[in-house]
Specification:
The protein has one domain. 61% of the residues lie in helices and 0% in strands. It is built from eight helices and no strands. Helix 3 crosses helix 8 and helix 6 packs antiparallel against helix 8. The longest helix is centred in the last third of the chain and has 23 residues. It binds heme C. InterPro entries: Haem-bd. It comes from Flavobacterium aquatile LMG 4008 = ATCC 11947.
């Protein structure tokens, strides 16, 4: 019994100690509007708000943190997801990608949503409001298809 108590106290102290480790937040008010996704594409408001609620926490320069995102060790996973996610796709930097990269990222977005891989299930477990409805998914996929068609037309003529 004594031993179990000791282990429990040790765990508790470690838990308290790691709370002091709070890495820098992914919050920046200043970003280049010219590179911003919504400033480069005519994104329908419903599509934009779906992407914002489901993807922007990990794929933009501004994360809306919830109180439990600050509790360690969750915080470390949250920050790791953000930094990995931003490396792959950052909606605030979208305009700085080459045309080809923008095109392939748009396709990748569509693919990730179709397959249900994004948003990550480990994230939606605690962030229920980031779950996209079937209608919201279809709206994003169809919009991406529609801009692809536009691009093809401009290349052909
Ligand atoms: C909890 C954080 C998180 C959320 C929310 C999230 N992603 Fe991601 N995303 C990641 C991480 C981490 C990676 C890189 C590792 C990987 O592919 O699993 C990634 C990678 C990607 C990639 C690159 C994959 C490739 O093959 O090019 C795309 C595209 C993507 N996400 C789209 C989305 C979209 C669209 C949403 C919203 C519907 C979304 N993500 C929501 C964390 C997230």
């Amino acid at each position: 019994m004594k031993r179990i108590k000791k282990i429990a106290i040790t765990f508790f102290l470690v838990f308290i100690a790691i709370q002091f480790y709070q890495p820098k937040q992914n919050v920046s008010s200043s970003f280049d509007i010219g590179k911003n996704f919504a400033n480069n594409y005519k994104v329908p408001p419903t599509v934009l708000s779906s992407l914002q609620k489901a993807c922007y926490d990990c794929h933009s320069n501004n994360t809306k943190y919830l109180w439990y995102d600050y509790v360690q060790p969750a915080r470390m996973f949250v920050e790791a997801h953000i930094s990995d996610g931003k490396k792959e796709l950052n909606f605030n930097e979208f305009g700085s990608y080459s045309n080809r990269k923008q095109q392939s990222k748009l396709e990748a977005i569509s693919k990730q949503i179709k397959s249900g891989e994004m948003p990550l299930s480990s994230y939606t477990l605690l962030h229920h409001d980031a779950v996209l409805t079937e209608t919201q998914k279809q709206a994003i996929i169809q919009w991406i298809e529609s801009i692809n068609e536009e691009d093809n037309t401009s290349e052909n003529y």
